[in-house]
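Re: Re: ligand-bound prediction request (bumping)

Still looking for help on this. To restate: I need the protein modeled with 2-oxoglutaric acid bound, output as structure tokens. Inputs repeated here so nobody has to scroll up.
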Amino acid sequence: MVVLSQPALDQIRFVENQKPTFYPVIPAIDLSKPESKTLLVKACEEFGFFKVVNHGIPLEFVDGLEAEAVKFFSLPQHEKEKAGPANPFGSALSDYLSAVKKLACEVLESLAEGLKVEPRNVFSKLLMDEESDSIFRLNHYPPCPELQALGCNLTGFGEHTDPQIISILRSNNTSGLQISLNDGSWVSVPPDHNSFFVIVGDSLQVMTNARFKSVRHRVLANSFKSRVSMIYFGAPALREKIAPLPVIMEKGEESLYKEFTCVAVQILDMRKGLHPQMQWVSYVTQSGRLIQVMMTRIHDTGKVYHFRARRQIAQSLGQVAKFNRRYGLKTEDEPEKK
Ligand SMILES: O=C(O)CCC(=O)C(=O)O
Ligand SMILES: [Fe+2]
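Reply:
Sorry for the wait, this slipped through. Here it is.
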């Protein structure tokens, strides 16, 4: 299986200045309610995105790590570099990580029940695998007021889907996250201190034979405030073969995807989107190693229109084509790349 290099739509850095649309009904699912299983399935089918309340994660865990992260990002660059591969966040990180992993597994188990597939750990066992390639990432988007005068919003993190199974996202009280609806429009997701946002990843879309949608999302750095987000990406082991699950497919339903293994797709993901100022993207591997990637500055604003044109083509092809490109499948109607 060939994993193709970045499609052009992942390199967009500017987007037209648009009034932010706040989507009124991002599904908010109360995990303590018995009907949550059905609602989770519905949200994964309709949006691939929702937030969970009554998730059982103590807010001290969240606030503790967020405070550490904000402190870390405010250090001068040479100080950050000194942090090296060790985990600079100590128990704040390990407490948070075990809590969000548990939450991800609970959501996945409820989804399996909602789909009426057995065993109920059919998805969550992939995250529980000792060799699971799950990662944790801290994103920092410094404010950049001077560039807003140009009449463009700046992309903090270019549009993409998450390649893993499920992502559990938190951010400080700064807006910026947007999701794409089925009609291609972008809507802003207001931050919410009491909830966790859940994103369906590509692998879950594949395992459910596209019954669940992995949602396209991006972050606009259009704020005067700094944004810090913390995301746990629940992933299978790299050796794991991902394909539509026969137990999910109806009788006679055709598999839409070829089997693939998760060959370091998260490294491709790291390249999606640049911030005009230095942006630290950090993530912690399962073994607790902190990986830091310094993203570079925008150097060529002349590319803006070029990228816009490409985006329009890419959007008109929609997600099926994107999946085909990502997983090396052939798309019949894809126009020649300009
Ligand atoms: O920073 C955010 O809120 C989202 C970032 C994101 O989508 C990602 O890291 O995959
Ligand atoms: Fe993402």
